[in-house]
Design a protein that fits this description.
The chain is mainly alpha-helical. It contains 7 helices and no strands.
Length: about 160
């Protein structure tokens, strides 16, 4: 299983199979594995349970809890620990606040688009041109971020 092409094909096959099962179970098209949507649904399920409100959920999330985000977090931690790449870094509190607020901004902008990049690609494959605009916007945002990072590195004289 060390051949990346074989593993990529295998993962793609299982992702397509899971996508077909999710749609047949009542999930929306191109729902697959959407970080933004699954996080929103998980937060809404928890909020609904505690407050008794009725925040919106995807039909599949109303039937079964969406714990994919929890699984990604646990799986990432296990993989990083197993490969000895998990390191806690000490930093200033303002840096942690910046990361936290940046994460909230990314998630909110993803929900404005209606998808994370993965779901946007799936939606574009289904023929949604709004998703293409979102993908182009994401690429533009990444390009601007890289330019800002390169400018900052050059200004500080870091090689």
């Amino acid at each position: 299983m060390k051949v990346p092409a074989f593993l990529g094909i295998l993962i793609g096959f299982f992702a397509a199979l899971i996508q077909a099962l999710i749609i047949s179970a009542g999930g929306p098209e191109a729902y697959g594995f959407c970080v933004a949507c699954h996080t929103r649904d998980l937060v809404n399920v928890i909020f609904n349970a505690f407050t008794g409100d009725n925040l919106g959920l995807a039909p599949i999330s109303a039937a079964t809890p969406v714990l994919t985000i929890v699984g990604v977090m646990i799986g990432g931690y296990i993989a990083a620990t197993r490969n000895k790449e998990f390191k806690l870094k000490k930093s200033k509190p303002v840096i942690y606040l910046l990361y936290f607020l940046g994460g909230i901004a990314v998630l909110n902008f993803a929900l404005i688009l209606g998808a994370c990049p993965y779901r946007a690609a799936l939606r574009f494959a289904y023929g949604d041109l709004v998703a293409l605009i979102g993908i182009i916007s994401i690429a533009g945002g990444v390009a601007v971020g890289v330019l800002i990072l390169l400018f900052t590195i050059k200004r500080r004289g870091i090689n």
